[in-house]
Specification:
The structure is a homodimer of 206-residue chains. The first copy, chain A, has 206 residues and is of the alpha/beta class. Chain A folds into two domains: 10-81, Winged helix-like DNA-binding domain superfamily/Winged helix DNA-binding domain (Arc Repressor Mutant, subunit A); 87-203, NAD(P)-binding Rossmann-like Domain (Rossmann fold, 3-Layer(aba) Sandwich). In chain A, 44% of the residues lie in helices and 18% in strands. Chain A has helices spanning 10-29, 36-43, 47-57, 70-81, 96-103, 139-146, 157-169, 196-205; strands spanning 33-34, 68-69, 87-92, 112-119, 126-128, 131-135, 150-153, 174-177, 190-193. Chain A has a seven-stranded mixed beta sheet, sandwiched between helices. The first copy, chain A, has a two-stranded antiparallel sheet with strand order 1-2. In chain A, helix 1 (10-29) crosses helix 4 and helix 2 (36-43) packs across helix 3 (47-57). The two termini of chain A are 35 Å apart. Chains A and B meet through helix 1, helix 5, strand 8, strand 9 and helix 8 of A and helix 1, helix 5, strand 8, strand 9 and helix 8 of B. Chain A binds a DNA duplex (30 and 30 nucleotides) through residues 9-12, 35-37, 46-49, 51-52, 55, 61-68.
Chain lengths: 206, 206
Amino acid sequence: MQSMQNPVPKATAARIPAYLRYLKGEAAKGVGCVSSAAIARDMGLSAVGVRKDLSLVSSRPGRPRLGFEVRQLISDLEKFLGYDHWTDAVVIGAGGLGRAMLAYDGFENYGIHVVCAFDVAPEKVGSFGGKPVYPLDRLPQIAARNAVKVAVLAVPRSAAQAACDAAVSAGIRAILNFAPVYLTVPEGVKVRYEDLAVALAQLCGE
Amino acid sequence: MQSMQNPVPKATAARIPAYLRYLKGEAAKGVGCVSSAAIARDMGLSAVGVRKDLSLVSSRPGRPRLGFEVRQLISDLEKFLGYDHWTDAVVIGAGGLGRAMLAYDGFENYGIHVVCAFDVAPEKVGSFGGKPVYPLDRLPQIAARNAVKVAVLAVPRSAAQAACDAAVSAGIRAILNFAPVYLTVPEGVKVRYEDLAVALAQLCGE
DNA sequence: GAAATATCGATAAATTTTTATCGATTCCTA
DNA sequence: TAGGAATCGATAAAAATTTATCGATATTTC
């Protein structure tokens, strides 16, 4: 594993989650070792590139004639991605997508704990999937109390900027935005756009 | 706009949806022209890169002192992305996420028509958001009748590979997969992974 | 136990992508 | 109407990324 002096290239870092997904699939099949050639074939990459990527994020070398040990690799990749320490997050908007995010159990695998959701509509307040849904105006209080810095924005387009502003003033510093809207945020707040329509459109156009 | 001899770089193509999202936001604000410097500032890119990107996908040049005409740009970007011809898609899985996808009205903006959903559970069959939900075993028939080639996979992890196989044998050639599972597909079938947990995890780790 | 072979890791070359520089153009203002 | 200022587009340089090549090594097979 490289230290800070030799940072991992962005292009490599962007591929790590895909490696992790693939390796977990192999591990579930009971595969113990996997070669760079096999990874490359299955994932549509080049074997040389795979070896280079893995050498940058994993300390343990691959073994000639065998390849890489799957479980060791998974452990190293998770450590690289920071899945070994926990982060709290909240969901803003308890409609279809918001509820799906609230109930989704897959976050636990990535060191993320989704605490609760918020919504302006009184009829959405209550609980879903075993987690509470609060009125949006309690966001500042609850975010501050739990020191939550990450929010998932799952509100309609028209409400997105307002909800974003509320989140930012409540101390949120990173936003995963599902609304198809470009958000204006202060310096230092990170926004990641996850436009499901774009994802589908790109797939169609390939 | 470049022709086939000079294909648009992959890195540029990957940024086009972000440009489009930004430009639509500006258009909604009533902005008529926008400079490369303004785009770069708001989107966190370099002005030179923005000009290069835009010159590759838009035929109309920017004008000194004014910048680029927003509506013209939007039109060109949409044409580049293929949003000017329609594609049908189906959703497999009518749980929380599947229903959200079925009811989401944003696809229309991208030339995508979500036809219906499928689910194995009888109690999910019926309709949602004005669109029908069929039993999964009707997928081959309906996909063939409508010549649908694109599917959104929104089923639990344990059902993903089986649903994928069913989709492929029903003639589906492109899959947007939300299940956190690596799918094995025949040659020629495209899979795009959209792991919401990974998206959130990456945001946390940045 | 020795040869064959599959695989790795490192170095180097090629390609792609980003960034810098600068003259040309057009609009705004006095 | 002339000067100034902001912006574009093109060319060139720099950086990043991908791909190719090859000797070294460990496992398998005979």
